[in-house]
Amino acid sequence: MSGGLKPKTGELTRPRPDTSLGTQRIRPNYLLPGTEALKTEAPLWKRLFTFLAGTWSGRLMLACALCGVAERMLTISIPLPWKTTLFVLLIINARTGTMRFLRSLFYKVRAKLMMAYALTALVPLALGIIFTVVSWTILMLAFSTRLVTGELDRHEASLGAAATTAVNVGALPSASKADLDAVMTTTLAEYPQATWTVMRDGVVLSSRGDALHTLPAWIEGDHFAGLAREGEKKRLRAVAKSGKAFVVVSTPYDASLFTELENQTGIVVSSFNNTLPAERSARPRIRVSRTSSTSDGTTTSKGVPAGATHDQYDWDTGAKSAVAILFNVDPLRLYSSLTPGKERISQMLLIALGVVAAIF
Question: What is the dihedral of CA 50, 53, 59, 62, to 10 degrees?
């Protein structure tokens, strides 16, 4: 029997030599031109109405939706878990519709080509962008962390230099309180809240603020500079000794230490827990621009959150521990601070990089 087109079916027949039936039906994926059209599917609204009215899942979903409308319109609370029920039913019944949508979406050759293009071109491009962003973010956070810890190191060195200068003057037999006050005021001009004590042979030669008449036993060398903890208080403190004379210089650990860093790079340190609870309401807080203080003495700021660690010492025992320094980074300000001046070479380079990326 020769192959041919069967009437009214759109099916093809051909000889089948390995069976006595003689022919085998071959059902094509689509009708050839000129053949009878396929049966038209029911409209979407009609299928949706049949689902909501003719199935228990649809009726239950409709009841849950009516509960939501009643709560919204009548401002009442219905003591039924209708939200959870509706969510579960949507997940269960949306599976068939989602599969039908995906099949219809990728039925055409154009959709398949678009998906192939997305997998071969857009996905690698997206991965490259993500890798670049993550790399620059890690580099930015590492650089900003070094800036924050470096700023603390700079203050410690500055306090240590002031203490060394004062102890050299205090070791002289002719040193007077006026001389020492002038030296300390000059060397500590950057720290308006600084306190100090200059002692020689057990006598206080000059002091301001908390007077420390003795040094803890764990300070063995002639110099110390670091972050000291006294209970809940934290202070940057420097010690210098020369013979029977010693100097202790302290300044509060607060936002004023990082004001210059913020003005230059946009990095805002956002947490300071350095005061006792009873003192928090009495002591005035120092606010930094673009920040707002909270009730516990912390500040908040916009930007990428980051953190660093710094060594601190218990002033009584000398126990060494790490303190977390939380801060926020403004990436654009940090990048702009790398090349200061009117030329703004960094901004021009960033624009050029954006143009190249857009062309790519």
Answer: 80
